[in-house]
Each structure stands twice: as structure tokens, then as C-alpha cells.
Amino acid sequence: MKNWPSTGKSNLSEETSLLSRWFSLLLPGGVMLLLLVIWEWLVAITRMEAWILPGPSQILQSLWQSRALIAQHSVQTIYESLLGLAIAISAGVAIAAVIDTSEWLRKAFYPLLIVSQTVPIIAVAPLFFIWFGYGLTPKVVVVALVCFFPVAINVADGLRLVDRDTLRLMASMGASRWQIFRMVKLPATLPFFFSGMRIAGTYSVMGAVIGEWLGASKGLGILMTRSSQSFLTDRVFATIVVITLLSLAIIALIEGVARLVMPWHYRQKASA
Amino acid sequence: MTRNKLVIRGLYKTYPGKGTSAVQALRDISLTVREGEFVSLIGPSGSGKSSLLDIIAGLSLPDEGELTLDGMPLAGKRGRVSYMPQRDVLFPWRTILDNVIVPLQIQGVKRQAAREEAARLLPVFGLEQFADSYPHMLSGGMRQRAAFLRTYLCKRELMLLDEPFASLDALTRMQMHQWLLSMWQRFRHSVLLVTHDVDEAILLSDRIYLLSPRPGEIVAEVAVPLPRPRHPHMTTDPDFLQTKAKLLGLLQETVFSKTPAQ
């Protein structure tokens, strides 16, 4: 009576999955390259003015020329994004954990969480400038608020959806509330936490940039505003490229941490 | 006569339904599991078997009735019996070794010590090559073995098994019966097994209780005359078949007559 895991098969599927993973990277990359070439070509044949629409090559050139300036402003934006994100994670997880302790609290606060998500933070942002001035604080507050909801709601959902049979088993073994939380609820909620984090990560840089638009002395948002006011359209585009890359870097960081913290989740997904 | 392990006397349980439609799940249940005895409880779906196991495991309280383990009151006390639920509910984030040590950790054993203790038992349960595997890598039968080892490591003298083999295919189930018999022969726990399967109940048990559909009531008690140790081929013994005929007859009289087939 032996049930061996099918190692031979999984090797083969690993190879094909590696191949298809390369392919799934190459394909969109190729399409993007093609689109950039078309863009460059259109700009050239229509003799488009550079202050209206520069070609990709010119944007790249501008990115290289103003690299020191962009780097300097990026540091500020990264700082605001990560600080806001850190606050959002702490607050989101804490609130979700508190809501989970009682059915009453959940019923009272969960709908509020959902509803408040529809409040356009960006429209509210000018208020923060009235309250907190033009320094670092209002930007961090915007980032924190934008990132808070996806984290809080996902973690709250994760805690609520923990398998009931598993909880019953733990209870039957005489586990304490803390043991149940640490051994079951926490790990079971991790996948939900990281789906919230992926959304929050995407929002974080955007939140910081929007905060800076409304008034700042440093940051990619203010660099963009200044560049567009001077009709340095290529530098506006260069800044957009950097903002996109920053967002991607944050998502990659989150993805990397997720793989480190819950390798079991990815293994299970891969075999499913 | 050996000592009584679990004694239940006159147990009632009613669940408040919506409005006036309260559901009586259990009525006047009395049963005994003696030390080292394997007892089965057969009943159709909705006969309150799970409610009864919940009460024995301390997850819910009876409305009325007496419940003792080794002569001590048991109602509402958790962690006194080993409970194996229907689904294996192994944690996907833990390896098999780390899954089976959960009850030890709950009892305060340090992870390393718990691992050492469980690692010694893996070969006995036929799980040695899966120590570092994750549950999704195992077949249903192997997962059920791991769940059983976890139940064993609760180290309680009474085991509650809630339809542990219901989700397995027929052949795997036969293998698991053989395996469970050899395990039981070795450890001699007191066992209360809940099942739908008449053959399974006869092959494994010393005594069988028959539970009627809602409200769950014990309608018959049948002793199994087969000798120990048991083997799966005993399912063709005359004694086995006689017991089966008796049980099916009782089911016909008491259980099926109460529930028209759907």
C-alpha cells in the first residue's frame, strides 16, 4: 500500500511552466515594443511638436538628462509612499483584528468600512492641506487613507472566512483564543492580506503624487506640475515612466515578501 | 467486565429554530463506551450524530442529561477527548509533521520536542516519507492517516471519529479499514465511530448503536460476535453476514420507516 507523490510528472510540468512563464513575459513585452515603435514613427512622419507629444526616444533622452533631478524628487515620493503604506498596514490590520473579536463589532463597523471606501480621498485631499499644512504630513495621510481600505477589508474578510471546521477542531482540542489566532487565523488570513497589499501598493505611489500636486516643494508630483507648466512635455513623460517603475518596484517587493512568507500558498496554487 | 469510559444518560438537545419551529436533534440518548472498546453509531443524515459528537467534544452543551468520562462530568469541557472531524482539515501552511504536532503545541509542548515525538510515530502510521510534504501533495487516504495521527497525538483515551472515511473511494476505504484495525490493535483506544456504512461499522466495532432520524434516538444496540484481531476478509464470514442481516432488518423497521426515501 504505497502512495508515492508523482515526482516525474511534476518535473515535466515545471519545465513547461517555466517555458510558458517566459512566453507570458515575452509576449506583452513584444507588443509594448511594437507600440513604442509605432508611436516614434507617427511622431516622426507627422512632425509633431515636441511640447505636444514627444517620441519615446526623446522621453528616454530627457529621462537620462534630468536623472539627477528626478532621482532627488523620487526619494521624497518613495519616502511618503512607504511611510503612508506602513501606517495603512498597521492601522488596517489592527482594525480588522479588532472587528474580528466580536460579531457585534463586525456588524457595526464592517459596513462603514465598505461605505467609506467610496469616499473619493483625492477630492478630500485639499482638506488635509488646510489641517496639516504643506509639509510631509498631508501626503502621508493621503497615501495612508488610500491604502488603508484594501488592507483593512481584505484582512477582515480573511479573518471572517477562516474555515469553520478548522476552528471547531482547534476548539475541541482545547486551544485558547490566542492559540487559535496565532496558529490558524493569522496564517489563513495571509493570502487575503497580500491581495490587499497588492492593491495598496499600486495606490501608494499614486496617492503620494496626487498629494504633491496639491502643493509641495519636493517630490515627483511637484516635478510633474512644474515641468508641464514649462511645457517640458518630455520631462512630464519621463516622470510618468519613473512613477510607473516605482509602483512596479513596490508591487514586486510585496510579491517577493509574499513568496517568502507563504511559500505553501504558491506551491498549492501551482499544483492546483 | 471492563470499566466504563464514556457514559451518557438521558441526553436531550433541541436547537432553537426560526419562530416556533425549534428542532429537536437528540432525544433521550443513553450510551456507553467501555475502556478499550470500539463502538459505532450508525444513523442516516440528520439523525443528530454531529450534534452528539459536538456535545461529547465540549463544543456545545446538552439541554438535559448526564455525561461522564471516567466518572467525571464532561459536559462543556473541551480537550478531554480526541476528536477527528469528517474533513481532514490539515493546515495547508504546515507540513505533515507540523500538522500532526498541533495538539501537542496546544498542550504547551515546545515545537522542537513535539516534532521529535511525532517524528518517531510517523513510520508507525506509514507517513515517514511525507514528513516534509504539504497536505495538498498527499492522496485522500494519506491525508486521513495524517489527520488520524494528529488525533492520536491529542493523547486522550477516548477517540471520536466522525465519518473519517466517508470522502474516500471504496478501495482506499478498504485499505484504511485494514490500517485502522492494525492501529487499533496496537493502541487499544476507546473509540466512538460515527458512520453511514453498515459494513464499516460491523468490521471495526465491538458494539453498534442505531440512531433514528430526527429527533435522534437510539433504537437498537447490536453486539458484533466477530473475534479480534479483525481482518477485512471477515466481511464474508457467516457471523458478519448474520449481523449485517440483523442490522439491515432493524434499519428497515426503525429508520427507513420513519423517513420515506427521497
Description:
The complex is a heterodimer of chains A (272) and B (262). Chain A is an all-alpha fold and 272 residues long. Chain A has one domain (55-271): Orthogonal Bundle (MetI-like fold), CATH 1.10.3720. Chain A is 84% helix and 0% strand. The longest helix of chain A is centred in the first third of the chain and has 40 residues, at 7-46. The relative contact order of chain A is 0.12. The model of chain A is unreliable at 1-10 (pLDDT under 50). Chain B has three domains: 1-46 and 62-77, no CATH class; 86-189, Rossmann fold (3-Layer(aba) Sandwich), CATH 3.40.50; 225-254. Helix content of chain B is 33%, strand content 24%. In chain B, the strands form two sheets. In chain B, strands 6-7-8-3-9-10 form a six-stranded mixed β-sheet, with helices on both faces. In chain B, helix 6 links the parallel strand 7 (158-162) and strand 8 (190-195). Classes of the chains: A mainly alpha (272), B alpha/beta (262). At the A-B interface, helix 7, helix 8 and helix 11 of A face helix 3 of B.
List descriptors.
heterodimer, A: 272 residues, mainly alpha, MetI-like fold, 11 helices, flat, disordered N terminus, B: 262 residues, alpha/beta, Rossmann fold, 3 domains, six-stranded mixed beta sheet, four-stranded antiparallel beta sheet, 8 helices, globular
